[in-house]
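Fold this complex.
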Amino acid sequence: MRELIDMILLIPPSLNLAVPTDIFSPKGTPAHLIFGLSIFVLAITAAIFLATAGLLLYVLVRFRHRATDPDREPAQIYGSNQIELAWTVIPILIVLILFLTAARVIFNTQEAAKPADALDVVVIGHQFWWEFRYPKLGIVTANELHVPVSDPSHPTPTYLQMSSADTDHSFWVPRLAGKTDVIPNRVNVMWIDPEAPGIYLGQCAQYCGTQHAKMLLRVYGQSPHDFDAWVAQQQRPAAQDPSVAEGQAAFLRTACVNCHTIRGTVAIGRFGPDLTHMASRDTIASGAIRNTPGNLKQWIDDPDRMKQGCLMPSMHLDDRDLTAITAYLVTLY
Amino acid sequence: MADSIPLTGIEDLTAASKPRPLTLEILHAWVTTVDHKKIGLLYIGYALAFLVIAGLEAVIIRVQLAVPLNGVVSPQVFNRLFTMHGTTMVFFVGMPILFGFGNYLIPLMLGARDMAFPRLNAFSFWISAFGGLLLYFSFLGGDGLYGAGTAPDVGWFAYAPLTAKVFSPGHSTDYWTLGILLSGVGTIGTALNIVTTTICMRCPGMTLNRMPLLVWLYLVTCFLVFVAVGPLTAAQIMLLIDRYLGAHFFDTQAGGSAVLWMHFFWIFGHPEVYILVLPAFGFANEIIPVFSRKAIFGYPAMVAATVAIGFISLGVWAHHMFTVGLGPGANAFFTLSTMVIAVPTGIKIFNWIATLWGGKIRFTVAMLFCVAFLFQFLIAGLTGIMLSASPFDWQLSGSYFVVAHFHYVLVGAILFTIFAAFYYWFPKMSGRLLNETLGKWHFWLFLIGFHLTFDFMHIPGVLGMPRRIYTYEFDRGWAVWNLIVSSGVVFQVLAIGCFVFNLVRSYSRGDPAGPDPWDAWTLEWSTASPPPVYNFAALPTVGSRRPLWDLKHPEDPDSNYE
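Structure:
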């Protein structure tokens, strides 16, 4: 589809940047179902457009006022019931066909039977980050959702039970599925089944406050082997490296513990992301910043400078504590 | 029948030589007026001022989004800008400008001397105007004692619980609520007035079946106002009770429902689209026949389609909520009801084309805007069909595709016909023609700008760009499209400059229009331009849908065919 758009608009291939969130390059069953319907609807609407716009254009040219026209009014025609009936009935038939096609996709997606091997993940939207909890696996992580690739002969889709801790959000990873709103005081369910390993990008699609723009979302589709390895790694307790004991002590005595959890320590806050394995994540600040020690240090120093309006406050740490805490967090692999 | 059409009133019987009034006297006359024409002009002037303000907000939004990771405005300011842009355009530009034209034209078209309730009319205008001022006063008074933000930043549909006290401290949301509440009171007052005028004030011979289509469209619009504005007002009051008296209608942290607000808002919000677009259809219904030199094709079908759109539009609101998780049954129902609206809308487009068929089409500026409207409304309708197929909407909803779609309706259809209405009725209102050359500059610049901006805006939506984000990453491939979209703004600003200059210049120096510059057929063209205070010296009597046609063609009057 992207190629088609480029072709129509004469965009040279050199400009063709890969778009990681193109709804027309589906990589999962729900996205494929929608894609099929989209092409059907696009074809019908394009045909209607060509017919109607073509007729309109013809009429405008054919019946334009010419200087040579005789100077009297054209014949007055007031209407015709037969014609009115025709252009009422034909659109009704088109609407009926479109509706039935759409209804099939609605039920195939939202009423699909859940396979026994489906993975359950609880998704909780926060201002402005995502919490992912795997209740049967005992894993809690943030912003980067790891799911197994689904093989059609043995489907292992991931079912997302979604709710919000504060305002409305919407979970949207265009290449895997359409979006579903994440609403407080309500549980919505959707499913994804990436067909190939890879990182699928998305972001919050319902305005949720100041930093709605940087509430990004990454889904890691992994082969069963890689996924099992990731699960095993995430299930381990938090790393205990004596060389960063100073950083750990500094972390545990500041207010960090009110919002963050590091399993096995006194840090049991739930307002911010779980940090037990935070060093294993590629990004911080909900996908907005790469997770490098330098970025991490700047982030802890003053989150507002990197993501203005985010809810994590600056702790006004001195440089020694800042360095020590950063060193500690980097070991939480 | 033709002999029963004594159309008089062009001669002004009041004394010609009056001393020139003082500025203060003129001001006093405008503030205290209950004349439907002056109130109409007040509405229009007020809406134009807000059009410029909200347009400038859009310019800043597009500058910020022109390139990725731009920092022209902060996220907080950006969120206020799109909230104010949307709220202003819908409540303080769209509705007042359409009510302004309605106020001005409906009594003239019906052969009446004023609206049914002139003082209610003045009250409605001033209360709506006060609502707009209150909204903008939030820039000064919004942060209250808390040091929280100034103008509202909750988006124009202000989803709960973002509007709750805990997420929106200070008073900015209250200014939003009260501004809309007051404008709603004014809207209902004017709707009441238009319905009563239409039912009770028609001149002799003007049966419902002979009313100009514009009046029919306003009539249906006003019934929609009655049904739609009530839920919005109720929701605003509930929100105020939530915020100040500790109720929990929408307070999810205490068991309230965010989805309840969505239902309330969209039960208003979708009919609102038709409240805005039906009067725009009305303009097209008057202008297209006159410049095709033919009667409208299928008048009864047009009326029936309008009434059908009115009814169906009340049952489609949840197509704004396909991603909320209402379940497959509800999604299927609202898919069907939304698609069905395409049928009466299609009837309208086909009837317009049939009106053009066999005519002698004169491409005045007013007609050019109507022709562009036909193409653009067709496209807007077709993208609407894409969005109505709910699975497709799961991808497109909340993306820039939706933003492009509704701007195609609001700008491509509604604003274009409003411009057409200016070029068509300005001579009646001022007695002078708008300059056609400047008008063509206005038209072509705006057309280019519109298509650069809103055609290309569909693409980032398809590529996964959500709306209401103040910036975006480099790696998403949205940058090229956003730059093109933003570049269209330059043309639009130039076009609006031409338009405003044209209005100002033609008001004092335009060519005199005379009572009937377009050789038109409805009653407003039978009286002087601008019409005297009493509109018609003697109330006209009509015998068909086109009384002036009957007068001009006594050998072949319309009344022979009714």
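The two ends of chain A are 40 Å apart (CA to CA).
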